[in-house]
Each structure stands twice: as C-alpha cells, then as structure tokens.
Write a structure and sequence with these properties.
With 83 residues, the chain is an alpha+beta fold. 13% of the residues lie in helices and 25% in strands. This is RRM domain-containing protein.
Length: 83
C-alpha cells in the first residue's frame, strides 16, 4: 500500500495468499480513488522493483470461466434501482 500510495489515494490494497500455507500467490490488487490515479499508479509501478520482486502493474481482467462451463449471458436490463 505504501509503495502505490505515491501515485494517488489508495482505497484498498491486498496481496492474494494461499489459504493453507499463507504464502503469497504472487499477485495482488490495488484500488485507487479515481481512474486517473489508477493510471498513474500503473505507469509509475509497472516494471519497478518492490521487496526484491519486479512488479507488473496492469488493470484487473475478469477471470475466464472454468473449462466446459459457458459464461452467463449479459443482463438484458439494468440492475434493480438503475433505471
């Protein structure tokens, strides 16, 4: 969180860990207050060293569905309360 806060207001930062061992899985997520700050954080941290590791900063992508499972169709209407 400290390293990424140089580029904007960090709302949330989390390193993903293994449930059993507690060791890092090698990736994490950082959420900034604005998209502009997120872009600045990506530009500022991508390819830099942090705690002896090279950081690859990029926008999060949705997870692919498991093999053999089709993704759900997109909603045909906006969610409740968004009309």
């Amino acid at each position: 969180m400290e390293a990424f806060s140089k580029f904007g207001q960090v709302v949330h930062a989390r390193v993903v860990t293994d449930r059993v061992s507690g060791y890092s899985k090698g990736f994490g997520f950082v959420r900034y207050a604005t998209l502009a700050e997120a872009a600045e954080g990506i530009n500022g941290m991508d390819g830099k060293f942090l705690d002896g590791w090279v950081i690859f900063a990029e926008y999060a992508r949705p997870r692919a569905p498991p093999p053999g499972q089709t993704p759900p169709p997109p909603p045909s209407e906006p969610p409740y309360g968004y009309r």
